């Protein structure tokens, strides 16, 4: 199954090589929404069900379904399409689409789908497309019924799942999080970018040692960068940094990162042979160092406080917390930056690569939910 020219096509392929074994055949064009895509095909009882997304990956997004007793058609459109959408509603989750069907071990049916949680009007979102779960049942005519009357709600009451026990709750990545890099390696909740190069960072007893290279955070090139996704609109992140920049423009810090052209960061760097803490913002082709504060120590705790309106940047020198500045949340959103990934809180370093370089050490990372 694949999408081309506003149609869903069916073809037989060699499962090993991927080579086409038959001509492509159009089997369904959806219900008239733009960009019919993401087909899923299921054989359930006597029917083949074809589930797709329509309407584009914006606020007109929807899930539609058709069925046929023969895999190559003719496919009959469900009479209550779209079967899942939040378009035109006041519900807090928007752009709902790209669903998949699941039958659990108890015979209960569910749908997983994508959606977004906007932070403002006009709608903007900074957490990327997130995965949601909603119950599903089958009506007397053999068509699936999703959620509440075809809508996805933020919370669902169901007797189909067991209560969460304390062991599972402790492992929930949507709660507070802390890692001591002096004792632990980054877990699977951390991400890298740009096909990372070995040797740019490593785990040590002093924390994560970022050796880095001369690539800056503004470039789409491999660099010492590790990011943990922002999962809450309101949260605080902290990291302890130890770094003695040997050359001008060497820097290490903590960033809110959408992509290499849309990010804010607080960093320890060297400028004109002096050590500074800086706040820099980049929005597209525009960038500026918003604040520069001379800083004599090589140890600092970097802090970002997030809410729906702003990212506030602070540092703690061991005596007190000081605000270095802030940046609007709206400029680090999909609607501005043009990607669906959402934001990361990223540890990074850009360091001249010679024998005299000193690595940047990140000894810990804390993520606190404030709502």
- In N-to-C order, the SSE pattern is EEEEEEEEEEEHEEEEEEEEEEEEEHEE
How many individual helices? 2
What is the gyration radius calculated from CA atoms? 24 Å
**Taking all residues together, what is the mean pLDDT?**
92
The residue fraction in helices comes out at: under 10%
- Indicate the low-confidence ranges by residue numbers: 166-171
* Biggest sheet architecture: 8 strands, antiparallel
How many β-strand stretches?
26
Report what the structure shows:
By secondary structure, the protein is mostly beta strands. 2% of the residues lie in helices and 46% in strands. It contains two helices and 26 strands. The strands form five sheets. Strands 12, 14, 15, 17, 22, 23, 24 and 26 form an eight-stranded antiparallel beta sheet that branches. The chain has a seven-stranded antiparallel beta sheet with strand order 13-16-25-18-19-20-21, with no helix packed on it. A four-stranded antiparallel beta sheet has the order 4-5-6-7, with no helix packed on it. The longest helix has 5 residues. The radius of gyration is 24 Å and the shape is elongated. It starts with a strand and ends with a strand. About 2% of the residues have low confidence.
